[in-house]
Amino acid sequence: MYIIVAGGGKVGLGLASELMQGNNEVLVLERDPARAAQMADELGDSVMAGDGCEASTLDSAGVARADLVAAVTGDDEDNLVICEIARSRGVGRTIARINNPKNELLFKKRGIETTISATTAILAQIEQELPTHEMISLLKLHGGLELFEIKLPATSPVVGRAVREVLLPPESLIALVVDPGGSPRLPGGDTRLNGGDALVVVTHRESLEMLREALIGSTHGLDT
Amino acid sequence: MNILIMGCGRLGAQIAAMLDEQGHRVTVMDTNAGSFRRLREGFGGVTVIGNGMDAQALERAGVREAEAFFAVTQGDNRNYFASQMAKQVYQVPRVLCRIYDPGREKIFRELGLETFSPTSMGARVMIDMLLGPRQEAK
Questions:
Q1: How close A168 gets to chain B, by Cα (Å)?
Q2: Strand locations in chain B (E)
Q3: What is the pLDDT of residue A135?
Q4: Alpha carbon distance, N-terminus to C-terminus of chain A
Q5: Residues A9 and A94 in one domain
Q6: pLDDT tens digit string along B30-76?
């Protein structure tokens, strides 16, 4: 494949080196001549100094025969223009980096379907790790007690254990176990807990962190 | 007409002043408050500090009510981006866009924008001045 990467920042440089290892023909366009010269030390002939927003630059980069153009500069307006010009020159596939997630809508409206937003990707990761997704408050009871639904991750320290072996905070109780298929069971001391089970637990609001430690484990682990 | 102008440089300020004088409702936006000094004294329109590529700023400047949008900042790509926002996201009926680079202007025009390139137009006018019938000096 012949791939043009517009923008020689960290993203562009990293992308180009990866693509070159995959035996693709790659050309990086970088507007700043000093930066382009510096990159040529690393990428050799695969760097061209020039502004990817200018049709003439793209033309001399051979845009007409490119299979893909990736616009990865730090400016969304530049990335939009690069994709538009590339498409007007007949490039079938364009990929745009989006720096401000709010701009995604406009790229979609312009028919540039493949957009990559680091901010959006990181947000999605954070949302997945937010504790509220693991422990959902169902009901506040009187006396500071609260009912929670807790989904056991496969990495939970209590997976494979019987309910009687689980060390719960004081005044806490596993009231119900719902297996991944959706069937509820009233747990006894011998009930084994499995990954994916949803537990309905009564606990004290102050004991929430202890409960999380007991049932989900450390939230600082890398595996999610 | 309700008109929103992005960019209060020489051209933006001139357009704003002329349309205001003609009795239109004019709003000018610019990222730099200092740019509004270019507006003539007694300018009756509204000024808004903000970036015309930002949806929130555009809404603050009343893009939803605008009947016409001028993109006249110094950046061709910014003008293109903001014009497409006005046109495709906010459905402003008329969107006019200045593009310095004649190559880009042609492509954007083919993509359906109403564009104007002072470079192409200026070149044509000056060549006409040279080769056409000579104007009497005043």
A1: 48
A2: 2-6, 25-30, 46-49, 68-71, 94-98, 114-116
A3: 77
A4: 35
A5: yes
A6: 999 999 999 988 999 999 999 999 999 999 999 999 999 999 999 99
**Residue A81's CB: how many other CB atoms inside 10 A?**
28
ipTM: 0.84
Instruction: Pick from B77, B79, B115 the residue to mutate for testing the A interface (most A CBs within 10 Å).
Output: B77
Point out the residue among B54, B80, B89 whose CB comes nearest to the CB of A105: B89
B 24-83 → A contacts, CB under 8 A: 53-55, 75-78, 80-81
CATH hierarchy code of domain B2-131:
3.40.50.720
Same domain, A38 and A115: yes
Res B127: pLDDT: 95
Which residue has 């949803």 as its token pair? Answer: A198
A67 and A158 inside one domain: no
Residues A146, A121 share a domain: no
pLDDT of residue A21: 87
User: Given an 8 Å threshold on Cβ–Cβ distance, is A54 in contact with B84?
Assistant: no
Range of the domain at A39: 2-125
A55–chain B Cβ distance below 8 A for any pair:
yes
Q: Does B103 touch chain A (CB under 8 A)?
A: yes
The mean pLDDT of A144-167, rounded to a whole number, is 88
Asked whether residue A83 is assigned to any structural domain, the reply reads yes
pLDDT digits (tens, 9 = 90+) for A98-113: 998 889 889 989 988 7
Across the interface, whether the CB atoms of B107 and A85 are under 8 A apart is answered yes
Report whether A169 contacts A210 (CB < 8 A): yes
Cut 0.90: pTM above it: no
Contact assignment for B103 to A55 by CB distance below 8 Å: yes
Q: Residue A90 carries which side chain, given as an amino acid letter?
A: G
- Hey, what are B106's tokens? 């042609």
Residue A224 lies in a domain: no
Specify if A220 maps to a domain.
no
Are A120 and A134 in a shared domain? no
Contact list in A for residue B76 (CB cut-off 8 A) is: 53, 81
Residue A222: its pLDDT value, please? 41
Nearest-angstrom CA–CA distance, B97 and B111: 12
Of B130, B124, B95, B100, the residue nearest B111 (C-alpha) = B95
- A128 pLDDT higher than 80: no
Tell me the shortest Cα–Cα distance from B40 to chain A, in angstroms: 31
